[in-house]
TrEMBL record:
Residues 1-34 are annotated as: Disordered. This is Uncharacterized protein. The lineage of its organism: Eukaryota, Sar, Alveolata, Dinophyceae, Suessiales.
Length: 112
């Protein structure tokens, strides 16, 4: 984590990363809209951050820029974190909603 990139195109700013996301990212009424809200890690209930329309805004202790997120299937979301793409399986039937990430970490949506 904490990767840095270089300005290699005219107008690029050192230390920034531009990510392209499919145009269909988070239209109203989709999986992403169900995920909007505050999230914690299930294992220790550590506050992680807030998912908005197409990003995860991390709590300040994580020192991450917002991570781009998008719907990749009916029950699948993807996220870019520190330049790496992660895939998660969403369980809308659980109360509260959870995301099981490919590395085994489970996120739980905090009830509103």
């Amino acid at each position: 984590m904490g990767q840095t990139c270089c300005a290699d195109e005219p107008g690029d700013t050192p230390g920034t990363l531009t990510v392209s996301v499919p145009a269909s990212t988070a239209p109203p009424g989709t999986l992403m809209s169900s995920l909007r809200g505050h999230w914690t890690r299930k294992e220790d209930r550590m506050a992680l951050g807030t998912i908005s329309a197409n990003s995860m805004d991390w709590e300040s202790p994580y020192q991450h820029q917002p991570s781009t997120m998008w719907e990749a299937g009916p029950e699948t979301v993807k996220m870019i974190l520190a330049g790496k793409e992660y895939s998660g399986t969403v369980s809308l039937s659980e109360n509260p909603i959870t995301i099981l990430w490919e590395d085994g970490e489970v996120w739980t949506k905090t009830p509103s």
